[in-house]
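dumping this here before i forget
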Amino acid sequence: METAKREVEVKQQKGLASVNNLILVGIMMAVGVVLRLCASFLVLGNMHPNFLIATYCLSIIIIKPNIKEAAIIGFISGAISQIGTSMAWLGLGSETIGAVAIALLIMIPMPKIIKPLVTTFITTLISGFAFIGLAALTYANPMPFAQFANMAIVTLVTAALNCVIVEVLSIPVDKVMNK
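structure:
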């Protein structure tokens, strides 16, 4: 008598419906906070990566949430970004916009190997320029060109640093999550 072989299909859950994905987002946010508070080890000039953007980008790339879930992740990141900021409340808007942006960007077909690099770079620019725009509307209206130029340069450097960090980390994190 021959027994039938059972095959179990494992389907990876996307978004925040999975407990594993919720844990990943929580861990990434915690790592982002710790690195943000200790970012002095990785400074280029007077600039450093924005680890909160990098960690929510990495989380969203891995778990592929829907737009509403991405907005929630971004809003939480924006709330966390209030720690130690000189421009209160701007992160709530800019990080929510950034998280929605990456959720949309990861839907665009492109080679998997460069997707974290490209999407994180563009997302950081979107989030950074949203922050600058909100700052111009609320804190520095009108914003002097020198201040805008300085903030734009910081945004560009931050985008370059973030995309490298996420590109490097996306492979091992993806392997751990999708084992």
